[in-house]
Amino acid sequence: AHDELVIEGSGDSGISILSGASNIGMVCFNDSGDTHEASVSYNHSDTAMKFVTAGTNRMTIDGTGAVTKPTQPAFLAIGSGSNQSLSVHGTTTIDYNTEVYDQNADFASNTTFTAPVAGRYLLIFNVCLATFAGDYCTITLVTSNRSYNSQNGTDVDGNGQKSPKMSLIADMDAGDTASTTIYVGGTSTTAASSFTNFSGSLLC
Questions:
Q1: Where residue 130 falls among pLDDT bands split at 50, 70, 90?
Q2: d(Cα 121, Cα 141) in Å, to the nearest integer?
């Protein structure tokens, strides 16, 4: 039983940690080899409460009630730079060569997100086809558990471009991967422009 310290009362009961007006009050959880393994702290100077595990701040609630999770898996990668040539009557894995952010370092090799923990992930991608004269194209979000497909027709905008896109919440296990592909049907070469992007975040 966890009874080294017991506070009991017949009505409301509690513990007060009184710190200086510009100082921090803290409860720490350590073992014999650690000095700051886990903690809950409140900073009176900026009215923020922080939650630390494994020696790293995982969540902050500021004085307005806003909650931030600096190591929560979240990423955005874009295909900036040269257009990517796509196979005709073949499948091409979309390349995103610029990371805008990658909070938990889970996006790698310009193509693949790896889930660090099991959960439900919101995944969104958009493939901008700089030129499109094919019969159709099929975009696919490929995950370890299953693949999600969306087929698009021949419609293009006034510039001859086409932007098929997909967004969904995917169930992923720890170590599962997600990448995006496109299959182009037709007779002409198609290229993905720099407006192509892939993003995702752990929801729950």
A1: confident
A2: 12
